[in-house]
Design goal:
The complex is a heterodimer of chains A (203) and B (795).
Chain A (H helix, E strand, L loop, with lengths): L1 H21 L18 E8 L6 E7 L10 E3 L2 E3 L4 E10 L6 E2 H7 L4 E7 L4 E3 L14 E2 L12 E6 L4 E12 L14 E12 L1
Parallel strand pairs in A: 4-12
Antiparallel strand pairs in A: 1-2, 1-5, 2-3, 5-6, 5-10, 7-11, 8-10, 9-10, 11-12
Chain B lengths: L1 H14 L9 E9 L10 E4 L5 E3 L5 E7 L4 E6 L6 E5 L3 E6 L4 H14 L8 E5 L11 H5 L5 E6 L3 E6 L2 E2 L3 E5 L2 E2 L18 E7 L4 H4 L6 E7 L6 E12 L4 E11 L3 E12 L3 E2 L2 E2 L5 E14 L2 E15 L9 H9 L17 E18 L2 E17 L10 E16 L5 E16 L11 E17 L2 E19 L5 E22 L2 E12 L3 H5 L1 E4 L2 E4 L5 E3 L2 E3 L14 E14 L2 E24 L6 E23 L4 E14 L13 E10 L7 E11 L7 E2 L2 H5 L12 E2 L7 E12 L2 E8 L23 E10 L1
Parallel strand pairs in B: 1-7, 12-15, 32-37, 41-42
Antiparallel strand pairs in B: 1-4, 2-3, 2-5, 5-6, 8-14, 9-10, 10-11, 12-13, 14-15, 16-17, 16-45, 17-18, 18-21, 19-20, 21-22, 22-23, 23-24, 24-25, 25-26, 26-27, 27-28, 28-29, 29-30, 30-35, 31-32, 33-34, 35-36, 36-37, 37-38, 38-39, 39-40, 40-43, 43-44, 44-45
Classes of the chains: A mainly beta (203), B mainly beta (795).
């Protein structure tokens, strides 16, 4: 009999605990997150090596991120003939204020990322050719390296040719290559974080 | 119990033939009480299929004479004890008998009865896991897919979701111990977190059971019963282990329990580890899993009360194929068009991104008050906590991309009653509460909002028997309130609160036309509110972008996604289904035939359809929306069991399903193709030291899904050679795979308390892809798998 009473007591205790716990209703919204997945704005900045104030910028913007608004690729890239430029990037998520600098993360995880390029044949005297998207061993002047000594592509150098180019093409592609980036990985290794085509003019 | 006994004796009668010469052997034996070990007198020991018998004396001793061999079955009976069958294969034997309590027996029978009130006229099948030669590492969905009309949809080898008559996910109720399994039941890659090796019986209800079990039972219900915790049951300890060649998997499990006069308990634990599986021609990189399960329960019987409490815990770490995860059209195009997966690495047990890490706690307490011999009032409480984390390949791979805690509580008060002979009824009040919270730190906008659901339901089911006819009817009222708090991608908060009410009904009829012919028919309704993913999904998940019902609107034929719609704007209706299911069963000497015909008409069925291609930073992407339309499903299941000879049984199964979107007059995607199978089971007599042995050979043929929607490759979409818009019909990224023939073999042997099983899945090492596996875009199914299992029972 004693045992039975004890069991009933335990039972009541268990039930009341459960009831108390479940009555704890909340009305909280999910915590604010720094959206690190979305890229909305990409800016290409060509800086004249001889004159740091001579900058040529090109932008691509996906105004609502994952929404259905179309991608806007603004500005053609208009470079001077026979001039050397350094190309750098600004990669942002501007859905939030302040915006999230995704370029910073790409740099931190350089061993998983590489930017590949393709352009109108022989638009540049250095690198010559048409870029390394079609053939990864083609020359690009990468000026940064990851922890394994492989190029990243956030900083590159370009010297335009002496011939004018109008309505040419300049493609940048950031590949995310976790575990698969090597010195021989290509523009089709891994997954694409961005892939943008700009108009290239050289005068 | 008695049916089981008859069944066992039937099998034995049919399987033993003895030589008639030299019948002069004799056996000396002794019968003891299993618990007290006291000798038992007046026990009747009969030799099966013979006139020979003996009765034990005061010391429990007996002698059987005129025997033809030392290998026969005996049937042992005594008043107050359970009947048992004993294999005698020695000259001297000791037999233990278990006491039965009359009171307990009637309660157990009633318990079973109560649980079937109102659903007896629905076609249903049960699998007794103990009796079946099963692979303990397989999923629930895989286990029940042997049932006619049931199959599974999967995402690789680890995530398998049950499909009944073409419906799955939120349209199938998964009842763990009669409590709705509370999990993140959305998307195609979330399987119920259930460990089958700790379960005892799994039942599939193929009709709409919305009245009995509540919303979501549109396609049917699956009931998983854990250990039944019998009273007056001797102590047992079962130890098991297994190995499988494909994925170098291994598993351990133990089960123990005992039933005293008024108290019983059980405890079980399981561990499963499997590495990367392999398809016939390559390794499926990142396809392993790790699973830990713990189950315990107690049963206390006090005068008119029965108290049962259960707790179970399951932790799963499930890898998803590395080659299946891409976010850009360019990468997915390459993955889909490649003959072999893009990532193939050497075998490893390591589970990398993408993977899912889920922990599920389940607690249930039930008190039955038997205020009359066959009438009772019961109170059930269920409490569950589901913690799900998902990790994707991304820049912040170490952070979960989905991190959710889901609390589920059930309170159920039921009155099980009878208004006279042949009448049974069940009246219940059910309060259901669910609370979903996002844990911070994912580095991305929550995919699913925080929400609370409160539901109050009342239901009544009554059934009456008139001679050979049974009529049942039921009605249920549900009122459900949801409170939702989410974030938009710019981190603005959105909120909504809405209520839905619904009346569900069911009527059924069963007629035992003759001893060998039975007919059952049921017409029932069920409903559900679209789930949170269908309402609030926003944007990319993998390569395609999908917008939930509340995340888009069309204004002046322009498609907009710039605000979150509220329920009060009345754009979304609940899904309502009407399922009519009929079953004809013929049971004649040596044959059992079951033929099921069904139709399911669903209003406001939620499905995904394409709306167009949009440019994104990653390149062009196809966009989809959730939409609603009325649909119809028609089909039949056919099962034919036959005793070919005394030792060989054949079990033929055929499934057929046809479905249509009535609004757009188009096909539905991901519907099960036609499948036929025939299981040949060969029972072998005991020989040498082996008590029993069973070999089964299962050929099955799955046809190509000829009702699949058109295929448009991602490449054609991206380069613009095929354009899609809001009026485009639904399409798939790849054609339905060809039909395939599979062969499975299994052999099970019992040597006293030791049982050994050997199975070969995909014996022919067939290279194939299953239409219902979402990994079919990227890789073949797993190849040949040798599975060994060994278990020992201490009694």
């Amino acid at each position: 009999m004693k045992l039975q009473l004890k069991q009933y007591y335990l039972f009541t205790l268990l039930f009341s605990m459960i009831f108390l716990y479940s009555c704890d209703e909340d009305d909280a919204a999910p915590a604010e997150e720094n959206e690190e997945e979305v890229i909305t704005d990409i800016k290409l900045i060509f800086t004249n090596k001889a004159d740091a104030n001579d900058k040529v910028e090109a932008k691509a913007k996906d105004p609502d991120g994952e929404g259905t608004k179309e991608l806007e690729v603004s500005d053609a890239i208009s470079l001077k003939a026979a001039t050397s430029y350094t190309l750098t990037f600004e990669i942002m998520n501007n859905l939030e204020t302040p915006g999230e600098d995704i370029g910073e993360e790409v740099k931190e995880e350089g061993a998983e990322h590489q930017i590949f390029f393709s352009f109108t044949d022989d638009a540049f005297s250095d690198p010559a050719g048409n870029g390394n998207i079609d053939n990864a061993s083609d020359k690009i002047n990468y000026k940064d390296t990851d922890s394994n000594g492989n190029p990243i592509g956030l900083i590159t150098e370009w010297t335009t040719g002496s011939n004018a180019v109008s309505n040419g093409e300049f493609v940048v592609r950031l590949q995310h290559q976790p575990d698969v980036k090597t010195s021989t990985s290509t523009a089709t290794t891994g997954d694409t974080d961005f892939n943008l085509k700009f108009v290239l003019n050289i005068q | 119990m008695r049916i089981l006994f008859l069944l066992i004796s039937f099998i034995i009668i049919n399987s033993n033939i003895y030589s008639q010469n030299d019948c002069s052997l004799s056996v000396n034996g002794k019968v003891l009480d299993n618990e007290t070990k006291e000798p038992l007198s007046s026990v009747l020991i009969r030799v099966d299929q013979s006139q020979e018998f003996a009765i034990s004396d005061e010391e429990g001793k007996f002698i059987l004479d005129n025997l033809c061999s030392y290998n026969f079955k005996s049937i042992i009976t005594r008043v107050g004890y359970y009947d048992s069958i004993f294999q005698i294969n020695e000259k001297n034997v000791t037999i233990y008998l278990s006491q039965e309590t009359v009171e307990l027996n009637s309660i157990l029978i009633i318990d079973e009865k109560e649980e079937n009130v109102g659903i007896r006229s629905i076609s249903q099948r049960s699998i007794n896991i103990k009796d079946k030669n099963i692979n303990p590492t397989q999923s629930l969905a895989n286990l029940i897919s042997s049932i006619d009309g049931v199959t599974f949809s999967s995402v690789g080898s680890n995530v398998e979701i049950p499909v009944i008559h073409g419906l799955y996910g939120n349209r199938i109720l998964v009842l763990n111990n009669y409590v709705k399994h509370g999990f993140q039941n959305w998307g195609k890659d979330h399987a119920p977190e259930i460990n089958i090796s700790s379960s005892e019986v799994v039942t599939v209800i193929k009709g709409s059971s919305g009245v009995r079990f509540g919303p979501e039972g549109i396609g049917g219900a699956i009931i998983i019963q854990p250990n039944l915790i019998k009273l007056n049951n001797p102590f047992y300890l079962d130890l098991g282990t297994g190995f499988q060649s494909n994925g170098n998997g291994y598993n351990f499990n133990f089960k123990t329990g005992k039933g005293y006069k008024k108290f019983g308990y059980f405890l079980s634990a399981d561990y499963i580890k499997i590495g990367d599986r392999h398809a016939p021609s390559y390794s499926l990189t990142n396809s392993g899993k790790e699973e830990k399960a713990l189950n315990l329960g107690i049963h206390n019987h006090l005068n008119n009360f029965d108290i049962k409490m259960y707790y179970s815990y399951l932790d799963q770490n499930l890898a998803l194929l590395r080659s299946s995860f891409f976010q850009s059209g360019e990468a997915i195009s390459r993955a889909i068009s490649s003959d072999v997966p893009l990532f193939i690495r050497p075998f490893s047990y390591k589970i990398d991104e993408p993977y899912q890490d889920v922990a599920h706690h389940f607690a249930k307490a039930k008190v039955d008050w038997w205020y009359k011999e066959d009438e009772k009032i019961s109170l059930t409480f269920g409490g569950q906590l589901n913690k799900r984390k998902e990790f994707d390949v991304r820049r912040n791979a170490e952070k979960p991309i989905i991190d959710l805690d889901l609390n589920t509580f059930d309170y159920l008060l039921e009155w099980d009653h009878s208004f006279g002979e042949g009448s049974e009824g069940l009246v219940g009040i059910h309060y259901f509460n669910q609370d979903n919270d996002n844990n911070p730190g994912t580095g991305t906008t929550p995919y699913i909002p925080n929400y609370n659901i409160d539901r109050l339901s009342l239901f009544i089911l009554e059934s009456k028997k008139f001679g050979k006819n049974l009529i049942e009817a039921g009605v249920r009222f549900d009122n459900e309130t949801s409170s939702v708090r989410g974030r938009e991608t710019n981190q603005n908060i959105f909120r909504d609160k809405f209520s839905k009410s619904n009346v569900t009904f069911s009527i059924g009829y069963q007629n035992e036309v003759s001893e060998s012919f039975l007919f059952r028919s049921n017409f029932g309704s069920a409903w559900r509110t679209p789930n949170m993913a269908e309402l609030y999904t926003f944007g990319a998940h993998g390569f395609k972008s999908t917008f939930g019902l509340f995340r888009y609107y069309i204004q002046d034929s322009n498609f907009n996604t710039d605000r979150v719609i509220k329920m009060e704007e009345n754009l979304v209706s609940s899904e309502k289904a009407f399922k009519f299911i009929n079953e004809f069963e013929i049971n004649k000497y040596k044959t059992n035939l079951k033929f099921t015909l069904f139709s399911n008409y669903i209003l406001n069925y939620v499905f995904e359809r394409p709306i167009g291609i949009y440019g994104t930073i990653r390149g062009p992407m196809p966009y989809f929306i959730y939409d609603q339309a009325d649909v119809i499903f028609l089909g039949s299941d056919f099962s034919f069991k036959r005793e070919i000879s005394k030792k060989i049984t054949s079990d033929f199964v055929f499934n057929y399903l046809w479905s249509k979107n009535l609004f757009k007059n188009e096909k539905l995607i991901d519907q099960p193709p036609i499948r036929i199978s025939n299981n040949f089971i060969w029972n072998i007599n005991s020989f040498w030291k082996i008590n029993s042995s069973e070999i089964s050979l299962l050929p099955s043929y799955t046809f190509k899904q000829f009702q699949a929607p058109i295929a448009i490759s991602p490449k054609d979409l991206i380069d613009g050679s095929i354009s899609i818009n809001q009026d485009s019909e639904i399409f798939d990224f790849k054609d339905a795979p060809d039909g395939y023939l599979l062969l499975d073999l299994s052999w099970k042997v019992n040597v006293n308390d030791l049982s050994f099983s050997f199975m070969v899945k995909n014996l022919l090492n067939k290279k194939y892809r299953s239409y219902l596996n979402h990994m079919r875009y990227f890789a073949d199914e797993v190849g040949r798998n040798f599975i060994f299992n060994l278990s020992y029972s201490f009694k």
